[in-house]
Amino acid sequence: MDHSNHSSMIHRSAASSPAGDKEKMAYSDIDLDRPVRGIETSPETSLRRGLKARHITMIALGGALGTGLIIGTGKALAQAGPGSIFISYSIVGFVVYLVMAALGEMAAWLPMSAGFTGYASRFCDPSLGFALGWTYWLKYIIVTPNQLTAAALVIQFWLPRDRVNPGVWITIFLVAILTINYFGIRFFGEFEFWLSSFKVVVIVGVIFLALIIAAGGADHDPKGFRYWNDPGAFAPYISTGSWGEFLGFWSTMVTATFAYLGTELVGVTVGEAQNPRKTIPRAIKLTFYRIVFFYVISILLIGMCVPYNSEELAFANNSSGNANASPFVVAIKLAKIPVLDHILNACILLFVFSAANSDLYIASRTLYGLSSDGAAPSIFRRTNSNGVPLYSLFTSAAVALLSFLNVSDDSKAVFTYFVNMTTIFGLLTWISILVTHIWFVRARRAQNIENEIMPYTAPFGIWGSYGALFMCCLIALTKNYDVFVGDWNKKYPTFITGYLGIPIYLVLILGHKLWTKSKGVRPHECDFYTGKDIIDREEEEFLAAKAAERAARPQELKGLSWFYRRYVSWLF
Q1: What is the mean pLDDT of residues 360-373?
Q2: Which residue spans within 20-78 are E strands per DSSP?
Q3: How many C-beta atoms surround the C-beta of residue 160 within 10 A?
Q4: Cis link prior to 327 (omega < 30° from 0)?
Q5: CB-CB contact of 305 with 118 (8 Å)
Q6: Tens digit of pLDDT for each residue in 1-17?
Q7: What residues contact 557, with CB distance under 8 A and at least 6 apart?
Q8: CA distances (Å), origin 310, targets 74, 201, 323, 339, 561
Q9: Average pLDDT, whole number, for the chain?
């Protein structure tokens, strides 16, 4: 099949247009200078490709390394035991890798400004793209103020609430992240690279510290797997016996999911990545090794250092979101190591700040992607001279003012309910990406696009996406199963906020379908080529420029570059 000839005249069906246009549109080589939905080329609306390979890989890692790992694992450990969290984090980690691989296959073929919103609209169903984009934006305009609030809580470790109002810290951090995002993608990428590198150093340090404590290096008491035998690897939850242990294990699947949320943000960066067909797949391949190293190993070690029935761990779970709530700090206290809890609290503060910074970036680029895909007002895709979508940025930042709800004790409960929605929105995002990938592969097969001509293919193919889709749906439907046990009058708000995302998602899909009369994309009509020549041209120009740069580089620097790529880049 001659794909170059195929790309010279493409017919795109109305089904692949989010507006649900009735007419078919033809694109020729000359037409490629016209606007292509989801791919911005105009100086007034285009982003700048300022993210290098190292930026992409570190942003992908930094998006997932946060308070979910450092703090959130404490409650899961106390509730279910070390064996449960080790298994749940391993299972969800593998699901995350399958989601990332599915996203990487589509992003490497056609890196669109609209991100995975554009892939859902173009390869599966425009109504799915509409719902995916808006639920993803909702998730991040909730998460951003939550991170700002978490930063204020972390500072209360040193300065109590009655001495300094948390609104002061929220204001400082909000202005800081808005400024960083305003200065453009190069500045943001460099800043986030170093912050994420610091995260890596901290996590590596925490892993070695936990290993030393488990081996008895701190208190001369080698623990090994002692706590897996007494009190045990699995703690019963709600019920007793094996059934109670299983319920405990399943309750940690939600904790694990929350910890991994944000890994998929690499799909938002494709519009600003240099040579995305190489950098995006590379970031995704490295995700697997990083998940194993940073998550699975640290979870295994913390289960060796802290028994699930520890009084200190129970106290930690009643603390606010500062270092007192971290199971790693509990391990430090049990090993009687001084000062380190203050150091770890300072690290957690930087973790939260980095998360808030990248969350605002994702929120602004998601709203930009929705506009680029025709699913939001066109003003949101307008960019300044630095390629920053200012209207999207300031609108997303304005919603972050919700964080000031936490200044008042009375409004804290309301905000907690908002935060409870983020996990279901995250799961719906993964589900949408997997469904889109399944449609993408089916369409590839229908149009005889073989794996050999793909820049990157998901290692487990369509069956990996089917398996991950099943797990995501199962977790989404059972994530708050414990609300059905106990006093319903106290738990019904948790039930509502825990599942409200599902009807919102379905209403967005059905409402868009009824309004636009759009239809799903049929495999033989799926448009793989419109706009691809634009990306091909950008790639050729970039590779030519890099070849010239390498030719002019001194031999010693070439050796250092090879050493970094070969031995260090998987970690940093």
Answers
A1: 88
A2: 25-27
A3: 9
A4: no
A5: no
A6: 444 444 333 333 333 33
A7: none
A8: 11, 28, 17, 21, 47
A9: 81
